[in-house]
Specification:
Number of helices: 17
Structural class: alpha+beta
Helix content: 25-40%
Length: 701
């Protein structure tokens, strides 16, 4: 008997594509139960202080207004693990934009008008919102994000650096960056006989369910959260945000379903951001370019509400030969919104600095930047000493150089010119850790030859439904069209959130295990299936809980060509190319989309995305898509994503490493290195906007 070729590894079309383009896919704000009311949040207009009075009478007198919730009358909540969700519980204002009231009305327009009419008085306090390299409040935390030690030292860095033949000591800075997914942060909530149902725009409905059950004092079985379609998150929907909490509070207070979509201009203050960083990198090497000393020291900020420390120095513990190493983080607690996860947290910031410093080291050593990286390939992970489960960065660099035509590069800076344009090329490496979490799933075979997979995965635009169906069809040796996948609800088998490039690996493992068990049951079954079909369930807690003896990371190489206008200072990226080693690619179509999307985001990080903290008012000034410039189609050049066929038997049954974030990681450094090659001056502050570039390409202006 012959079987049809496996659908796994083929470019299957996304299953929800037609639903999305026809409007059949329903997002959190598109559910409108009968009698639904609308809420509008009111942010604080002081940078620090206390609410002393709320004059709600004028707002309540407006047409259609049902309620004004403040710390004086809002439902009392149990203390959440995340203090940013202790909403409307007291009069404190820890930063500008903190929610101090919620207006509920019969229409969105009436709610917005009433929010504008609401008068609130404050007792203002002195505030501090500016991060500097010498801030007097800097301290060393116990840990950086992800449980990483804040400081790690190996060997004797100071002695090794002082003795190095070639030394680099440079500081790189980045402004805060903000998550701006296309779909707003929205929730629709209602209570029915004590049961809370919420449609929420979240990267993981189970986490939202846990938070809502805790703060409202409910058993988890009394809370249902649905996140069936999510229009992007980039980390800002990775943990529960204010909208499901506020919507549920308003629904409890009014006795009606309530819908809430956070206005985009408020997002910078309430859904997290990539924290600004000041990063000092010191590299010491021998005449052959081999690194003998490496230090990466990061300064960043956190809020007074909750500590969040961007783990930007952690990638330097993994990347290169470094017998003498110092990596550490210091943080200042400021009166700012709490930073949080943003696509490739830690790696995106840290690798910009490290890979820029590697480019500077190559110049100082008189070496080709690709060759320098090849010479510093470690035999084992430097920080832990563990062998890599697989590491094909060398192949990525060589294949990328071949495809890009790197051998034709003139290493001299500032010499390639087309009229008013200076041209340059740059390279950077990238890495991202392999992460996986316990997951559960069920698989069901029906008498008509169809299969149903149930798992509480979340599709945030990555094509999760499609890839999970491919995994199931592969294990069951079934046609792809015979497999249906249900995801996005806490009524389904528990599964982790979509984040950390871990979703497919985590969910896919449980789907693979459930389908393997189902296939065994079907193999033992003779004759036709019973009317109720045959089912199997699986949980991967035991497998995922086993500690691996291997260091597990994905790697990549980025190449960029830029043009710098000597008249305007404008930078355009002509070509962007990435080559990745990310385990088995389960669907080339969705994978290429993820890689290219990440590279586009890295391009924005390099050139267009910047955030200015207004020290006087204590707020970010770029608060919408008119002022916070994410790359548009006109900004995205010829962009290519390729990958190495990587067989890593130490990962999981599907062999994938995760691909959603590694495309971001090296892109900004590759672009910045190309700008240096074009103009001959090293610019170390992102984004590279024309005002920063122009003095070096046209000093007369």
């Amino acid at each position: 008997m012959t079987h049809a070729p496996s659908p796994l590894g083929t470019p299957a079309v996304r299953r929800e594509a037609r639903d999305k383009v026809t409007g059949a896919a329903r997002y959190a704000a598109e559910h409108t139960p009968p009698g639904c009311a609308y809420a509008w949040p009111v942010p604080a207009t002081v940078a620090r202080g206390r609410v002393t009075a709320v004059h709600a009478d004028e707002a309540l007198a407006l047409p259609g207004v049902l309620a004004v919730l403040t710390h004086e009358n809002a439902p009392r909540l149990e203390e959440p693990d995340d203090p940013t969700l202790a909403l409307l519980q007291n009069a404190r204002v820890p930063h500008r934009g903190w929610y101090v009231a919620l207006v509920v009305a019969d229409t969105l327009e009436n709610a917005g008008a009433a929010a504008d009419a609401l008068r609130i008085e404050y007792a203002r306090e002195e505030h501090d919102v500016r991060l500097t390299a010498h801030h007097p409040g800097l301290y060393t935390p116990e840990q950086a994000n992800g449980g990483h030690p804040a400081v790690r030292e190996r060997g004797d860095f100071d002695t090794a650096f002082a003795a190095a033949a070639v030394r680099i000591d440079a500081t790189y800075t980045m402004t805060a960056l903000h998550n701006h997914p296309m779909e707003p942060h929205a929730a629709t909530a209602w209570w029915d006989d004590g049961h809370l149902t919420v449609y929420d725009s979240a990267q993981g409905s189970r986490a939202v369910q846990d938070v809502l059950a805790r703060i409202f004092g409910q058993d988890r079985s009394r809370v249902t959260v649905v996140s069936e379609h999510v229009g992007g998150g980039f980390g800002s929907k990775g943990t529960p945000r204010p909208q499901p909490v506020l919507a549920a509070m308003a629904a409890l207070h009014t006795g009606r379903p309530v819908k809430l979509a956070l206005p985009r201009r408020q997002l910078a203050a309430v859904v997290g951001h990539r924290a600004p960083t000041v990063q000092r990198v010191r590299l010491g090497a021998g005449p052959d370019g081999v690194i003998t000393a490496l230090a990466h020291e990061v300064i960043t900020h956190t809020s007074t509400v909750n500590e969040f420390v961007e783990q930007a120095a952690v990638p330097a513990r993994t990347m290169y030969t470094s017998p003498h190493s110092r990596t550490g983080h210091r943080v200042a607690e400021l009166d700012v919104p709490t930073p949080s996860w943003m696509r490739a947290p830690g790696e995106a910031s840290g690798m910009y600095a490290l890979e820029s410093a590697m480019d500077e080291l190559a110049v100082a050593a008189g070496m080709d930047p690709v060759e320098l990286r090849l010479r510093n390939e470690p035999g084992t992970e430097p920080d832990s000493g563990r062998p890599f489960s697989s590491r094909h960065l060398t192949e990525c660099l060589r294949e990328g150089a071949r495809r890009f035509g790197w051998e034709r590069r003139d290493p001299r800076t500032g010499v390639r010119r087309e009229g008013d344009l200076l041209l340059g090329t740059g390279v950077a490496a990238s890495t991202y850790p392999v992460m996986v979490s316990p997951s559960s799933a069920t698989a069901h075979a029906a008498p008509d030859g169809t299969y149903l997979i149930r798992v509480n995965a979340t599709d945030i635009g990555t094509g999760a439904r499609t890839v999970l169906a491919q995994i199931a069809a592969d294990v069951l040796a079934a046609p792809l069209e015979s497999v249906r996948v249900d995801i996005g609800s806490t009524d389904l088998p528990a599964a982790p959130l979509a984040g950390g490039s871990s979703g497919t690996a985590s969910w896919g493992w449980s789907v693979h295990k459930a389908c393997t068990a189902l296939a065994e049951r079907l193999g033992d079954h003779s004759g036709g299936l019973p009317a109720e079909g045959v089912s199997a369930a699986a949980d991967t807690g035991e497998e995922v809980g086993r500690e691996s003896p291997y260091a597990q990371h994905a790697f990549g190489a980025h190449f960029a060509e830029v043009q710098v206008d000597t008249v305007t200072g404008e930078i355009r990226v002509r070509r962007l190319l990435g080559v990745y080693a990310a385990g088995r690619i389960l669907n080339p179509r969705t994978a290429r989309s993820q890689f290219i999307g990440g590279m586009t985001m890295g391009l924005g990080m390099a050139l267009t995305e910047g955030s200015t903290m207004d020290a006087a008012f204590g707020e970010y000034t770029e608060k919408d898509l008119a002022s916070y410039h994410v790359p548009a189609c006109a900004d995205v050049p010829a962009i290519e994503a390729h990958w190495i066929d990587e067989d890593d038997p130490h990962l999981n049954p599907t062999g994938g490493k995760g691909i959603g974030e590694i495309g971001v990681v090296g892109t900004a450094a590759a672009v910045a290195n190309a700008v240096h090659h074009a103009v001959g001056t090293r610019l170390r502050e992102l984004p590279l906007t024309p005002d920063k570039v122009l003095p070096y390409v046209n000093p007369v202006r």
